[in-house]
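Q: What residues go here?
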């Protein structure tokens, strides 16, 4: 693929990070508030013997935690990715980079470093790349492999962000042929493929289609956390694109809640990452009890990353402590036991799941 010199893509990436840091881009309603883990008053093991390790796409993570795809594509993000990657390396968890479209299409060494710094800072961590489904239709297999080689990736995420694209003034709204492109890449790429949403969740039928297409994992990225529709509404307002601003605001809380999406996706795939409004180790524990393999977070790591890797490590250690406590008081000595922990499903999530099962 010939390299371009346009800066539109990298400027958009810089806008995204700035808006996330400065504006209200949070939604509520993950559904985790409706998941009640059953307390075990007599765990019958020592807290120190809890095993957080988990098999993840043929590798082993020290804990079932993923730093979700967030940034890259602008020189201003290099420092953030370095801190995130160094923390992933130190704690033994997984990390994804933001969309690599800019690195593949733009001729800019400083921009490219915003991605390559990740593997430099984390030579042993589980790192996955990231390409949009809309772009996947346009790239041949060789170009997709370049994304893998760029960061020596252990896997590649294909992100499904069509609501975001529909709100962007410059968005790519052609979704025709994306499933076929995902299937082709899943069958031929040198590393596992993760299909991931970007904040609006994945329903069961879509999860079934993705599973049949051969993806190795599904990241639900459900409703209840950062709203990319809302982010794009802020960007549209800045350029007086009033129609896109209105649409982005209207669809700010659109999607399948994370807890419900997790329940639906685990019916179709055995490796599901629960993300979208995950904010605590207790949220991760609930997601795993629903059947997820791991929990993913993005925005909660962003502010710590501006302070350096030690701050990110501290945030991860908080999550680990919270997750360990949840495992202890549910009698779950390892992640497999937590996946079988008892829970009650209440409120709106119970009603949503019940109606979807009918």
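A:
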């Amino acid at each position: 693929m010939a390299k371009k010199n346009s800066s539109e893509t990298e400027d958009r990436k810089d806008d995204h990070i700035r808006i996330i840091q400065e504006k209200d881009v949070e939604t509520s309603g993950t559904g985790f508030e409706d998941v009640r883990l059953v307390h075990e008053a007599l765990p019958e093991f020592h807290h120190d013997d809890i095993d957080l390790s988990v098999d993840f796409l043929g590798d082993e993570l020290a804990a079932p935690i993923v730093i979700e795809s967030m940034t890259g594509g602008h020189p201003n993000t290099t420092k953030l990715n370095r801190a995130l990657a160094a923390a992933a390396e130190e704690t033994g968890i997984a990390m994804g980079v933001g969309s690599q479209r800019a690195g593949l299409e733009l001729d800019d060494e400083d921009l490219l470093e915003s991605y390559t710094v990740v593997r430099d800072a984390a030579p042993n961590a589980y790192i996955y790349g990231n390409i949009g489904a809309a772009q996947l239709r346009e790239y041949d297999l060789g170009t997709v492999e370049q994304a893998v080689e760029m960061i020596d990736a252990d896997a590649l995420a294909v992100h499904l962000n069509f609501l975001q694209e529909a709100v962007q003034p410059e968005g790519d709204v052609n979704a025709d042929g994306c499933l076929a492109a995902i299937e082709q890449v899943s069958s031929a790429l040198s590393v596992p493929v993760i299909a991931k949403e970007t904040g609006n969740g994945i329903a069961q039928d879509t999860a079934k289609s993705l599973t049949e297409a051969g993806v190795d994992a599904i990241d639900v990225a459900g409703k209840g956390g950062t709203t990319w529709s809302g982010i794009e509404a802020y960007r549209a307002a800045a350029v007086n694109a009033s129609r896109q601003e209105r649409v982005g605001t209207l669809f700010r809380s659109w999607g399948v809640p994370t807890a419900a999406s997790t329940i639906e996706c685990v019916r179709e795939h055995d490796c599901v990452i629960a993300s979208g409004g995950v904010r605590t180790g207790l949220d991760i524990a609930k997601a795993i009890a629903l059947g997820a393999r791991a929990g993913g977070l993005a925005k909660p790591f962003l502010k710590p990353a501006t302070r350096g890797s030690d701050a990110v490590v501290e945030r991860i250690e908080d999550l680990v402590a919270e997750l360990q406590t949840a495992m202890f008081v549910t009698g779950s000595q390892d992640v497999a036991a937590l996946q079988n922990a008892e829970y009650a499903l209440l409120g709106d999530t119970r009603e949503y799941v019940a109606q979807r099962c009918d």
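A: Context that may help when evaluating the design: The chain has a mean pLDDT of 93. Residues 309-328 form the longest helix (20 residues).
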